[in-house]
Structures are given as structure tokens and as C-alpha cells.
Amino acid sequence: MEEFWHNGQLKTGASITLSLTNPGWLYGATVFTTLRVYAESLDHPLTAWSAHCDRLEFSLQAFGWRSPDWNTVRQGSQRLAEQYPVLRITLFPDGSELITGRSLPSELTQNQQQGITAWIAGSEYQRSLAAHKTGNYLSCWLALQEAQRRGAQEAILTDSAGHWLETSTGNLWGWADGSWWTPPLSHSSCEHSNAPGKIDILPGIVRSQVISWLKWQNERTNESHWFGDRATQFETLAYTNSVRQVIPIHTVVDGTTSKDPVCHRFNVNHPALQHLKARFENPDICPGI
């Protein structure tokens, strides 16, 4: 039986009981974070425990929800970290917590080495409240399902102006002109279209780590809008998240502009990409992360 942590208690099984009026059940009214535990320690620098908690607290404050007992959250997380390398911490509006664990993806090493194919999704798949990691992840899930039906392993989300925003599970990175580029956390959609509004992406934990690492080594980073024609000029392309670290993207399939999909290829063995991946193998090269 699998173990999980719920409302301050370690439990076994594969289900919990929720009221039919619970907003988490009715509306996806939860916030969550998924973290990878290194060396079974929440205090390992790559685990980034504080950063994950800060992101959860930021969303709770923004929504006016009750904060959990953080000592209890840490207790449950540490207990599960003894047997699971990946934890998902879910918080409900009433301050209750649900912590589950799982194994690393079986295809992770292969994807890290060989890269994946990504499919460009239409703007209808944009995430709701994209600056927050809420339980309403339906658009991302649908985009990923459609990508997989098309033979890809990831989906690239876009806005109505055609900007590349993020993937269904992580943040985008491209290398060109001697530096890394990543989409900005927020921009106004009316800058390049007639549709007013603010477009956000998730402020990923690894995204922040990578930016800090690059600045520490005096390397250039650029946060700017990506249109499809600009993105296809990158020498190498990847996405990051806390579980998978850095995943190269060797092929992007664009079926949004024509009936016949266009494929763009990228170098998964680019030196800049290998250098970025090495940061996770030796975090001591960038102290203070």
C-alpha cells in the first residue's frame, strides 16, 4: 500500500474523503507544488524547499486562503521523502494539506540524453491564473494529451499573438547569439495584438535557479517575447522543471499555421546545453543557490 500525508497524519491507500461541497473538488480550488528531493533531504540546495514553500504562500496570500501549519507540512514531506524522490504538496483553501509521493519518470534519463519532440498548441490551451500553480490544470493536461496523440512528448503553450509561453509542465529556454533566452513572466497581450489583457507564465523554481546561476557566472540571459520565427532560430532548445531538470527539445512540430505540420530541428548536443545540464550534476559550482 502506498503512503501519503493528509491533515497531519501519515496514511495508506489511494484515496481520501472530501465533502461534496469542497471547493477543491468543485472548482479545482487548490494550490500545489511538485518538488524533487535530493539525497532524501529537504535542505539539499537543489531540493529548494524554501522556494517551493514561498511559492505556495504567495498564492495563498493572493487568494486570501488560510495558510497551513508549515511545521506539519514539513514533517509530512520529510516522512515521505524517505521513500519517494518526488513529492507533490497540495494545499486547500481551509489550510489543510495533502502530500503524495512518486518515483522519477521511467523515461527521464533517456529524455535528458536524447531529447524529445514538442507540439505547438493553440492559444485556447493557455493556463488559468498562470502566475499560480492551481489545481485547475485542465488546459495543460488537454494540451499534453493532444501532443501525445500527435506523437510528441510535450506541448508548447502560446497566446493569441503567437508568443511561445511555456510548456505544459515547465519553462522554455533557447540559446542564440551567445546567450540563453527565456520568455518573460508577464507581458501585455495588447503589445502585439488587438486583444487586451495580461499574459503570465509560471515562475518556475528551476527557472529562477538557472537565472541566478547564469548571473553568478556573469553569463548573459534575456527575458523577451518569443514568436515562432524567432524561436526557430535558436541553436538549441530545452525546457526545465523541478522533477526533470533540463530536457532538450530536438524537434518542434508546428501545426498551427498550415494544414501540413512544419518541423523544426534543434541540436541536443550543443555545448551550452551540456553546460546547463552539468549544473544539476554539481550544484557546488554555483554556491548559495
Q: What does this protein look like?
A:
By secondary structure, the chain is an alpha+beta fold. Helix content is 27%, strand content 27%. The protein contains eight helices and 16 strands. The strands form three sheets. Strands 6, 7, 8, 9, 10, 13, 14, 15 and 16 form a nine-stranded mixed β-sheet that branches. A hairpin with a 3-residue loop joins strand 14 and strand 15. About 2% of the residues have low confidence.
SSE diagram, text form:
Layout: E1 3-6, E2 9-12, H1 23-27, E3 31-36, H2 49-63, H3 70-81, E4 86-91, E5 97-102, H4 108-114, E6 116-120, H5 138-149, E7 154-158, E8 164-167, E9 171-176, E10 179-182, E11 186-188, E12 198-200, H6 205-216, E13 221-223, H7 228-231, E14 236-241, E15 245-254, E16 262-265, H8 271-281
Key descriptive features of the protein:
single chain, 289 residues, alpha+beta, 9-stranded mixed β-sheet, 5-stranded antiparallel β-sheet, 8 helices, 27% helix, 27% strand
Q: Give me the count of strands.
A: 16
Helix/sheet category: alpha+beta
Principal-axis shape equals globular
Low-confidence stretches: 191-196
Amino-to-carboxy terminus distance: 36 Å
- Report the sheet with the most strands, covering strand number, pairing sense and barrel closure: 9 strands, mixed
Average pLDDT reading? 91
Query: What is the element string, with H for helices and E for strands?
Result: EEHEHHEEHEHEEEEEEHEHEEEH
Radius of gyration: 19 Å
Number of helices: 8
Strand proportion: 25-35%
Helix coverage percent: 25-40%
What is the chains' assembly state?
single chain
